[in-house]
Amino acid sequence: MIQMETMVNIADNSGAKLGKVIHHWRKPQSSSIVRISCKIRANSKTTSKASKSSGTSSGSTGTSSLRTKTAVDSDASTLALALVVRENRSTVRLNGLRTRFFDNAVVLLDAASVHDISNSSIKGTRIFGPVTCALRKSSSLAGSALKILSLAGGVV
After folding, report:
1. Phi-psi region of 73 (alpha: psi -120 to 50; beta: other; left: phi over 0)
2. Considering the entire predicted model, what is its pTM?
3. 7-48+74-155, superfamily in CATH?
4. Within 13 Å, how many C-alpha atoms sit on residue 66's CB side?
5. 14: three-class secondary structure by DSSP
6. From CA 107, how far away is CA 39, in angstroms rounded?
7. Using one digit for the tens of pLDDT, what is the confidence trace for 71-110?
8. Domain ranges of the chain
9. How far apart are CA 45 and CA 132, in angstroms?
10. Sign of CA dihedral 151, 138, 135, 1
11. Mind listing the pLDDT tens digit for each residue in 4-33?
12. Cβ of 145: how many Cβ atoms within 10 Å?
């Protein structure tokens, strides 16, 4: 179940790994649960690995040692529009089949404004993991949903 303040995985190669749900555009607005193919605003966190190497020498023995440090120093967070593609909660289809994923995952969208979500495209060029075929039925995301379905590893 995805609701406000839920941590979600980001399923594309846009550079972000985790995100937090901040707002959703689901009608009715009083419903706090977000379902598959809903549009959300997420606080995406990107992680960049910086590797530093510094050489130190000890004067008494004349030997030098090279020390390498790898650290995850910078955690930048940005607001982004996203589309829910996987949900941990089980959903029942009309034919009686139940589907459930291991994680909650979203795909980041590249939209000029919040009101122009229907004409948005995805930021990444690959999508990791399976997505559900319920994206095909979403009428508000005709172009984006078909692109997500074609780039995904599997459609369940």
Report:
1. alpha
2. 0.74
3. Ribosomal protein L14/L23 (2.40.150.20)
4. 3
5. coil
6. 10
7. 444 457 788 888 899 999 998 988 999 999 999 999 998 8
8. 7-48+74-155
9. 24
10. positive
11. 889 999 999 988 889 999 988 766 666 777
12. 22
